[in-house]
Automatic annotation (TrEMBL):
Annotated protein name in UniProt: Glucosamine inositolphosphorylceramide transferase 1 N-terminal domain-containing protein
InterPro entries reported in the protein's UniProt record: GINT1_N, Glyco_hydro_beta-prop_sf
Source organism superkingdom: Bacteria
Organism: Vibrio cincinnatiensis DSM 19608
Coiled coil region boundaries: none
Domain Glucosamine inositolphosphorylceramide transferase 1 N-terminal: 48-248
Length: 304
């Protein structure tokens, strides 16, 4: 009876709260010892229920933080961009104008240009955007792959080929790999895809990281709940015909957001993660009811 009451209480009043932390550690320290709570400063963006999926990029030498924001009363996630002092920039306005959920804003540089691949699973495509310096916005260029509700897509160039790592909302822990000879070329599924079919690491949790000559993939641990922890996965072999990887470290949430962690970003000078805690308030029940109604009716309210 007590267990049943606890389960009912959680269903009624439990909600996750995600926050982004700036980590003051070296990459070697994190890979060897994990993230230390006393070395994390939480990003000042508390008006949202979720501030998550952090990515780092530089524009004209200035570092920026790209992330997802989400409120239960708005029903759909959107993208935001800040500098590391908390100043907001409208770089993602064109992306957010497209109806639907937006998250996982993977920003990367290639040949002097800045590109974005956001999660746009509502469009059943992986979309490529390019930063327009005059408009100061990311502008849609093309779909890289289509046909499924792709989520949490990461991409990397290695030895003249582009490798695209992704999964689908219907099967989020089956990691698929695609390869192309050009960023805007035709992506074909890798002969060893899917490369992971498990809740341990099958869903991406950040950009592919290059540390000197070594590549790392970050895979979410969904065993025991969404975003429980994050696996650091060493890519042992990556060619158009072969793929091999191995887990080298698990990263967990840190106090006061110690209930989970599911995204890691590193730029060489800065490091950020997202982490969560569970909250239990009477108002959470109202939030859940509103969210379920908006979701069922497919209503998307604007953020202010």
């Amino acid at each position: 009876m007590l267990d049943a009451m606890k389960t009912l209480y959680r269903k009624l009043f439990e909600l996750e709260q995600w926050r982004i932390g700036v980590v003051d550690q070296t990459l070697a320290e994190v890979f060897q010892r994990g993230i230390r709570s006393e070395q994390v400063t939480w990003f000042p963006c508390h008006q949202y229920d979720f501030v998550a999926d952090p990515f780092l990029f530089s524009l004209k030498g200035k570092p920026y933080l790209a992330c997802e924001i989400f409120n239960y009363f708005s029903a759909k996630g959107k993208l935001r961009c800040y500098d590391l002092n908390g100043q907001e920039y409208p770089f993602f306005d064109e992306v957010n104008r497209v109806k639907g959920h937006k998250s996982y804003p993977l920003v990367f540089e290639h040949d002097g240009e800045i590109y974005l691949i956001p999660e746009t699973s509502d469009l059943n495509a992986v979309s490529l955007y390019q930063f327009d310096d005059q408009k100061q916005r990311f502008i849609w260029q093309r779909h890289l792959i289509e046909g499924k509700d792709f989520v949490d897509t990461s991409i990397v160039q290695e030895d003249g080929y582009w490798y695209l790592f992704t999964s689908s909302a219907q099967d989020p822990y089956t990691q698929r790999l695609f390869v192309s000879e050009a960023l805007t070329g035709v992506f074909s599924e890798h002969p060893q895809s899917p490369i992971c079919c498990h809740r341990l690491g099958g869903r991406n949790g950040g950009a592919i990281l290059r540390d000197h000559h070594q590549l790392y993939r970050f895979g979410q641990n969904g065993v025991g709940g969404y975003g429980k922890s994050l696996l650091v996965i060493k890519i042992e072999r990556l060619t158009p015909t072969q793929y091999q990887e191995s887990v080298v470290r698990e990263l967990t949430g840190v106090s006061p957001y110690a209930d989970g962690l599911h995204t890691f970003a590193y730029s060489g000078e800065h490091m950020v993660v997202d982490a969560k805690k569970h909250t239990y308030f009477l108002s959470n029940l109202f939030k859940k009811i509103v969210f379920k109604c908006l979701e069922r009716l497919n209503i998307e309210r604007r953020y202010h």
